Amino acid sequence: MTVADAFALVSRAIDEGRAANGYLVCGDLKGGCAEFANLVLGRLFPEEPEQIASRSHPDVVYLEPQGKSRTIKVARGKDDDGPGMRDGLIEPMSVTAFSGGWKVGVIVGADRMQEEAANAFLKTLEEPPPKTMFLLLTDQPDSILPTIISRTQRIDLPMPPGVLEGNAGAAVAEVFGSAALDGTHPKAVAARRLAEILSGLKDEAEPEDAPIVRKTFYKTVMSFVRGWMVSGALPRHLAFRNIEAVEEAYRRSCKFISDETVLCSMVDKMIWP
Prior knowledge:
- The protein is of the alpha/beta class.
- 52% of the residues lie in helices and 10% in strands.
- Strands 2-3-4-1-5 form a 5-stranded parallel sheet, sandwiched between helices.
- The chain is globular.
- The model has no long low-confidence stretch (mean pLDDT 88).
């Protein structure tokens, strides 16, 4: 879905009085996600464009990862490393809107919420004040609490090109540029090739960098899967099935399961255009 299409969808919902309380916006945080959020804010507050641009509007609250850990905590830390979920979002959002209209909470990097912060936010999301909207911006939706995902309307925007470069990036592109894969054997071959690419990347990296390598690999895979959806190569319901398969594979890869086992399961569940 393009940014323009997503904005048209939400704008129409606002006009018809059926806007969701929460939107999970998946894409490039500094690109499509930021553009989409600004369009929605401009739609809700059309007379204050300068305040929206400068992030100074009294009825718009932003919360971003803070501190050395770059996470969103439930409350401000002892080292005064920035606001947490309660003082930075929940409390400001509970105050009556200055303009008497909408209040919007924008969480940038929603996947960086610590568990306690996510649970605190969930309570607000379940019982939001009237005319309240939350925009959860993320490039890693698989890291967000499932109960939060289930209570938001998901919007998938184009992701930036795959982050793997050089031979590894070309190898992944070759797998996902293949003709439609159908049948057990072709899918097993594709999964084995992906496992070889990931194994090679991990062998070249320092042991402490293995989690970063794994995350980069799956982000690259996701960029191709999202590309099929954005281009219209697959119907949305099939595209979402693929996205869910990649997200599940990444979660499983963090456990003590072999890469080939995880990727075989992922590819088996996917639909090729």
